[in-house]
């Protein structure tokens, strides 16, 4: 009995010391960001308590061992179950990138659940070895290859593969023109045209597309250029690369995406969700205007090169409501220069280029998502203020382009977009957009270029 008791004491002491050592090791699985936190303190306390149990009465030792083992075992099983059941929905499929800020992980799986107001469906998708949504890309395939760049409107994590803009475009080209093209989804949620430009400069040669389509979401892509801080305009109004740095907290978040306990992430997500709901700020055109002006002042006037917001975009209210303001003019000029460089990248790779302009639902649907515009307060507002500069830039650089404003406006736009703080197009919107794009490719002669190169 004494030998058994001594063994139990040694076991409790060893487990306790291991817990103490882990608590002070600052390992990211439970430690999270560098520094001693509350969970580490809890692990340390549990470890010290376990060590203390090694000195209790011998008739209590077996019970103490059972309690410690069952506690740790329960946590371990819970972690395994959480990883199996929730990893695809709770672990972002992004990784830090020193040139692009972030990119999609290759060979990853993810799932998105739509809000109840938008149907509540759960959608699963995967990335291939290139970090692009969809199946593995066969670079030896002789079928015409169309590469579509863009943000969440193209990535479309909220739709099944066949219902995305890219999936629909491939089907439309096949049905309208009897052409079996491969449409590659190179969209990444939260990307902006500057990130697309960098990717084109490095990817077009290896991917060898026969056509590149670059989509620009007029709603927030202007402001994204200032939030990402990858480029700026110099004193002569010319585009130049910017020496940006990623906020340390943001960089740590990327590193922890796939190294942190999922139970811990679930707890933090639940707590942050409650905090957001309790202190929720309702976005309006006025608040969006404040945000749009602030990001200009921070980046352009104050010269702040630290990227603190790599994901969240805001309606470019300064361009929509006050197009003559300094912030609006700077953003339009910056966007124009970016589009010019996109055209240059395509020309250097000898790849035909088309621009797809996606309007904001706020400019298509009166009172969309509860946003009410005071026309007397903002007399310069026009529903085309955000898309018109993109069309002008496309004309300046001789880029074939399609503005979807009229296409969507004439098709009852209220049924083409999600609602309740989700301004993306739904499956119906993507279908209409893809059909219009396929028709435009035919009218512009780009389909015949694709066909002739593969005959």
Topology (elements, then pairings):
Layout: H1 2-25, H2 28-31, H3 38-53, H4 58-90, E1 94-97, E2 101-104, E3 109-113, E4 122-126, E5 145-150, H5 152-155, H6 165-177, E6 182-187, H7 193-207, E7 211-217, H8 221-228, E8 231-233, E9 239-241, E10 245-246, H9 248-256, H10 262-278, H11 285-301, E11 306-307, H12 317-321, H13 326-348, E12 353-358, H14 388-396, E13 401-403, H15 405-409, H16 427-443, H17 446-453
Parallel strand pairs: 5-6, 5-7, 7-12, 10-11, 12-13
Antiparallel strand pairs: 1-2, 3-4, 8-9
Helix pairs in contact: 1-3, 1-4, 4-10, 6-16, 7-13, 8-13, 11-13, 13-14
Description:
With 455 residues, this protein is α/β, with parallel strands linked by helices. It contains 17 helices and 13 strands. Strand 8 and strand 9 form a beta hairpin.
- Annotation, overall tally of beta strands: 13
Largest sheet, in brief, is: 5 strands, parallel
Low-confidence stretches: 275-280
Order of helices and strands: HHHHEEEEEHHEHEHEEEHHHEHHEHEHHH
Q: Write down the Rg.
A: 26 Å
The number of helical runs is 17
Q: Which class do the helix and strand fractions yield?
A: alpha/beta
Q: Please report the distance between the alpha carbons of the first and last residues.
A: 87 Å
Mean pLDDT across all amino acids: 92
Shape annotation: elongated
Roughly how much helix do the residues carry, as a percent range? 40-55%
> What fraction of the residues are assigned to beta strands by DSSP?
5-15%
Strand order, largest beta sheet: 6-5-7-12-13
């Amino acid at each position: 009995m004494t030998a058994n008791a001594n063994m139990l004491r040694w076991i409790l002491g060893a487990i306790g010391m291991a817990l103490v050592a882990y608590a002070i090791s600052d390992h990211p699985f439970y430690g999270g960001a560098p520094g001693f936190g509350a969970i580490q303190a809890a692990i340390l306390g549990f470890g010290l308590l376990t060590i203390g149990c090694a000195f209790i009465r011998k008739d209590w030792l077996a019970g103490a061992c059972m309690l410690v083992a069952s506690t740790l075992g329960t946590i371990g099983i819970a972690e395994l179950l959480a990883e199996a059941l929730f990893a695809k929905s709770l672990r972002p499929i992004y990784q830090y990138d020193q040139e692009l800020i972030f990119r999609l992980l290759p060979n990853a799986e993810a799932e998105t659940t739509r809000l109840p107001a938008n149907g509540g469906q759960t959608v699963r998708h995967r990335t291939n070895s290139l970090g692009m949504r969809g199946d593995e890309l066969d670079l030896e395939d002789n079928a015409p290859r169309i590469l579509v760049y863009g943000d969440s409107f193209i990535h479309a994590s909220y739709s099944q593969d066949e219902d995305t803009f890219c999936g629909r475009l491939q089907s439309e080209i096949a049905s309208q023109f009897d052409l079996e093209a491969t449409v590659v989804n190179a969209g990444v949620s939260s990307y902006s045209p500057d990130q697309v430009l960098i990717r084109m400069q490095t990817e077009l040669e290896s991917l060898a597309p026969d056509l590149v389509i670059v989509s620009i979401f007029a709603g927030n892509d202007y402001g994204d250029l200032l939030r990402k801080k990858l480029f700026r305009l110099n004193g002569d109004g010319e585009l130049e690369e910017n020496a940006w740095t990623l906020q340390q907290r943001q960089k740590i978040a990327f590193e922890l995406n796939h190294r942190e306990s999922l139970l811990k992430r679930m707890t933090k997500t639940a707590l942050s969700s409650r905090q957001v709901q309790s202190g929720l700020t309702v976005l309006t055109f006025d608040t969006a205007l404040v945000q749009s002006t602030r990001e200009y002042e921070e980046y352009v006037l104050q010269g702040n090169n630290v990227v603190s917001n790599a994901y969240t975009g805001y309606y470019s209210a300064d361009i929509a409501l006050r197009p003559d303001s300094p912030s609006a003019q700077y953003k339009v000029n910056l966007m124009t220069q970016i589009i010019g460089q996109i055209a240059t990248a395509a020309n250097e790779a000898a790849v035909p280029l088309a621009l797809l302009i996606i309007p904001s639902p706020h400019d298509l649907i009166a009172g969309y998502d509860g946003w009410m515009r005071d026309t007397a307060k903002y007399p310069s507002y026009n529903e085309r203020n955000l898309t018109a500069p993109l069309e002008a830039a496309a004309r300046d650089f001789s880029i074939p382009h399609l503005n979807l404003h009229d296409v969507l406006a004439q098709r009852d736009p209220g049924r083409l977009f999600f609602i309740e703080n989700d301004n993306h197009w739904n499956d119906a919107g993507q279908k209409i957009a893809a059909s219009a794009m396929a028709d435009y490719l035919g009218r512009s002669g780009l389909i015949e270029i694709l066909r002739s190169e593969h005959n």
